[in-house]
Amino acid sequence: MADVTFDIKEHLGVLSESSRGWKKELNIVIWNDREPKFDIREWSPDYTKMSKGLTFTADELQELKQILEEMEL
Questions:
Q1: How would residue 2 be classed by pLDDT, with cut points 50, 70 and 90?
Q2: 3-class DSSP state for residue 37?
């Protein structure tokens, strides 16, 4: 399996924190030297480990925002 490289360019916010100290965050991340994407996933306290997550382009995140605004939460 190929190595995955990442660079967290900007921390945008913490959505939650587990009892183990892992934080579910929204960040802007560059994966494997590609274009930056918005990224939601859990990170270990020292950012050496991560869970599976979701990445979004700016357009996809805008669509998600519209969907969430239309929902009655």
A1: confident
A2: strand
Q: Residue 41 and residue 1: Cα distance in Å, rounded?
A: 21
* Segment holding 38, helix H or strand E: strand 37-43
- What is the rounded CA–CA span in Å between residue 16 and residue 11? 14
What is the spatial distance between Cα 12 and Cα 51, in angstroms, rounded to a whole number?
A: 18
- Confidence category of residue 1, pLDDT binned at 50, 70, 90: low
Within a 10 A sphere around the Cβ of 12, how many other Cβ atoms? 12
Of all helices (H) and strands (E), which one includes residue 65? helix 58-70
DSSP class of 4:
P
> What are the structure tokens assigned to 6, written together?
């990442």
What is the CA angle 60-64-70, rounded to 5? 145
Global confidence as pTM: 0.89
